[in-house]
Amino acid sequence: MSGAAFAFESTFETGTLTSFGIRPTVATRGSSAVLCIGEIVQAYGSSNSNAANRWSTVSKELVQTIAALNGLADLPARWNSYNAAPIDPETIAAACYLVQSAMLVSTPPPAVVPTVRGGVQLEWHRNGVDLEIRIDSPNQAILFVEDSDGEHEEQFEPALGLRSIQEWIKRVSKK
Amino acid sequence: MPPSSYCQEHYPDDPAILDEVQLLRRVPRRHFFWDENLGRTRPSSAAFEDDTDREPMSVYRRNILEVESGGVARVMMGHEGFALAGLAASEFRVQGQSIHPEPVPDEPAHTVVCGDKPERVRKLFAKRALWVIEPPEQGRS
Predict the structure, then answer these.
(1) How near does any CA of chain A get to the CA of B43, in Å?
(2) Which of residues 66-95 of A touch B (CB under 8 A)?
């Protein structure tokens, strides 16, 4: 979870985890899927650390997104009433990393969608753009965009990010 | 675009299932959302995915449900919070899918839709699907 291009600004809407409806107890879970949440909780509890500085202001939308991602870890097998697999915690963590590094202040929360094979899909459908980021595993993701100019698809590794994501995220963010 | 050789061998298309037959798919709460571009709630493309490369997507034939099984609500029993989406068989076939009946105990309407489903195709299904049973009320995000 280090080295990300965190683009946080002081104009973020801020609040405590509790005010966002997130109970800090989730941080006590052992899986890597909750590292995002755990990191925030720890940061709020240690105001002088570098981590606290990094997390001292986070957007409500980002926290909502992270909470939604965290919730995927609890899905049992067959959660879709067919044969869906549980969601891989490492993949959730990769998605978490991605939203931290890519979402802007003005970015609404995406639809956080579990996939049948244990992955995560992030979707924004606004401003005439359909943006889907499908994270199949910690090492494999696909960006899929459709707008008035046509379709665009690009594979990438979540940990390395993708330069064009920022541009597309900007397109679906509030003007 | 014909179905893949795997589908043709293991799940061949049944022409007795007419193009206009509506095929129904349960959609869990986490698979529908408000689409601001369309101005309506719709399923995610993720709702139209095969379980694995060798396990094609399950659906139910509406005509069988209505004649033999007591209506579409039958497949929603025990699935609170789910919605039910429908697409005509022709909409799947035109995207290279085979429609293969696969009745299971207590569910004669069970059918599978076999074929490659890249993102473009899944999204097309998601946007064209009609709600047979609407999603429960939810906030717009």
Answers:
(1) 10
(2) 75, 79-84
Sort out which chain B residues have CB atoms less than 8 A from A130's CB and list them: 37, 123
pLDDT for residue B138: 61
Distance from CA of B33 to the nearest CA of A (A): 7
β-pair partners for B57:
B113
- Whether A81 sits inside 8 A of B35 (CB atoms) is no
Q: Which amino acid is at B67?
A: V
**What ipTM does the predicted assembly reach?**
0.91
Distance from the Cα of A46 to chain B's closest Cα (Å) equals 32
The string of pLDDT tens digits covering residues A80-109 is 999 999 999 889 888 988 888 888 889 999
Instruction: Give one word for B111, left, alpha or beta, with left for phi > 0 and alpha for psi -120 to 50.
Output: beta
Residue in A113, A126, A130 nearest the CB of B46 = A113
Task: Output DSSP code: residue B72.
Answer: G
The whole-angstrom separation of Cα A57 and Cα A16 is 9
